[in-house]
Amino acid sequence: MSNSPAGDVARSTVRPYSETGRRGPMRTFLRTLDGIPIDSVYDPRPAVYKTFPDTPRPPTRDLVFVIAHGFTGDVDRPHVRRVAGVLRGYGAVVTFSFRGHGRSGGRSTVGDKEVLDLAAAVEWARDLGHTRVVTVGFSMGGSVVLRHAALYGGTDAVVSVSAPARWYYRGTAPMRRLHWLVTRPEGRLVGRYGLRTRIHHRDWDPVPLSPVQAAPRIAPTPLLIVHGDRDGYFPLDHPRMLAEAAGDHGELWIEPGMGHAEHAADDALMARIGHWSVSAAG
């Protein structure tokens, strides 16, 4: 587990939370260890929040969620903003665009170097004065939060939603289309101009630690694995492999009727995740 800096973080002159003052929203670019500028947004916990049935909110002034979006998402996408909005009922939120997505620099490596992007965002969250950090990732971001926790540590709880367990999976039609998008020149053009996602042309070298290899290395940090039973990308053997690898420190939620990632994670589910995170990170 590495304790090395994640990157050069844009420092803020705004003081951390105190009993008498509140920090406002901020947007800045963080710089990763390999020099990529990452578009990042900080939203403090609001004074007025939306409530959900059976999900009481304990005090969470010190807690921050760092959200890792799925492939082709970015910090300004409506589904990312919606997820952030629900989790703000439970703590502050840091959102960011992975490399190659939105206004961030670089090109997407589809889950490899993205761990450096998340590391910079987590370091920024700590620098803002938060003592508890929960990473929440979706699909590609779900694999990234697993690898980040295994390689870097520094988080108090991890939530992985709709993540793959293993690399190079092509067992479903959506994943075969995604591999075409990533590996073919014409696919990368579609990604750049149709999906606002710039994809790197090089293969992984070396192949990064897989999610299922990362899961047991996260212990004793609490880990929540969430997956829909109607996920069109990754069937249920993926979350079950992750949960088995995680052992006693992992918890598995199979959600009836849920599809894939942020679009399928409704507000009620996100509220349950927020409530779990508050308890687990405590």
From TrEMBL:
Keywords assigned: Hydrolase
SUPFAM superfamilies: alpha/beta-Hydrolases (SSF53474)
GO terms for MF: hydrolase activity
Domain AB hydrolase-1: 66-266
InterPro entries from the UniProt entry: AB_hydrolase, AB_hydrolase_1, AB_hydrolase_fold
Ranges where the record places region Disordered: 1-23
Domain of life per record: Bacteria
Descriptive protein name: Alpha/beta hydrolase
Lineage, uppermost ranks: Bacteria, Bacillati, Actinomycetota, Actinomycetes, Kitasatosporales
